[in-house]
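fyi for ur records
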Amino acid sequence: MRRATLDAFRDEPFDVLVIGGGIYGLMAARDAALRGLRTALVERDDFGGATSHNSLKLMHGGIRYVQHLDFARLRASARERAFWQRAAAPICTPLEFTIPLFGHGIRGPEAFGAAAAIYTLASRGLRGPHYNGARAVGAKAARQRLGGFAPEGLSGGGVWRDGQLCDVNRLHMACLRAAIEAGALAANYMDASALISENGRVTGARLRDRLTGAEGQLRARVTLSCAGQAAAALARPHLRDPAVFPGFLRATNLVVDREVGRRGFAVVSRSQSDAVVDRGGRMYFLTPWQGRTIIGTHESSLDHSADSDVDDFLNELALACPQLGLGRKDVLWVHQGVIPANIDDSRGGGKRHTRGSLLDHSAQGLGGLISVAGVKYTTARLIAERAVDAALLQLGTGALPSTSFDTPLPVDDSVDPDPRSSDAGTLAQRLRRAADQEMATSLSDVTVRRTLWAETGLLNAPSVSEKLAAAAAMANLPA
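which gave:
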């Protein structure tokens, strides 16, 4: 994959400009290009480097929506999880979860068993063969599954399967490769610094190449802004009512140097859930991953410091599950990103959005711009498809059916070298491949967003930093 140059973007107008190279932007560019639209994708930092990188790495099938009686989202989630399982099979695998249940009311095994039966019926024909078996189990079976993490007083357990991504970075590269192979032009470190509007319509964006400092313009008939928190800053100068955008919360997930078994499970925090059925505490999920454990998700106001959020999360985990015994020394990597939320200052906090949304700004008198507010990683393909559908309405091209659901992703299933045991020459080969085929422009692009070296704590091993510095010099890749 070759990074598009500013000169390439200056050519004739594009049909669709996608701003933002997270999972929503990647899937939107892929969908648009698969439909034959002339598509450009620009990302001001690195692809998949913000909130999309900082996820719990799970593909949810929607069982949680039974408690909200939201069957439309349940079915959509089950269908989209099946898409990822099929399209990215080498890196998406089923993972079984168990949650502790208490008493015999709405938090007990009888209620969960009924919910599991409803889920099984509602998702029939959608969830795929890998995700059967949602059920309630008794107290003895639950304690066996939870082992030393079983809380006192449980009356049973809830069991189901969801999908787990073993390598989110590799999935982002597959989505990017798919968009480019379908005809899109793409560039990371290409900042859309401002939108261009003429006569009440967005007609493109001003670009600044952050690698060269060069500036230019890109013309597009429709712009899809998938830029997360930055989408508001781009659109507001052109809107009569800039208050249409949501606020944001910070979400934190931790990768810890601890193994907790082969299954995922939950511990109950002291935070309160917003579910219409379950009024118990919010659950934190612990998922086995790459011989480590990912724990999430903790949410807080952006007014808090990111570092203090980690301490708060560890303190909450110490109260919820003291047998974990986690401290700062056990944290290998901190995932943090921002998520859309309704912020209510009068109540001292916010409540995260649970649905992805499209803001077609033509309703506010500004044509040519659609802002995409993504919430769930699982439904990124679906929301991207709807965003391109909305773009087609503005383009006036007529129906161009999406093929994104049935088109597989070109997932790279090669194995990366272990930097602890590999020599500098072997590591240099991996760095060169990342630069030549994956648009990596620096060593950190590779260690953080092309491999799992940083996330799994391998960079902390003795002599690894020295070997990588030598490898980067051999590969002519800046630090």
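Residues 273-280 have pLDDT under 50 and may be disordered. thats all i got for now
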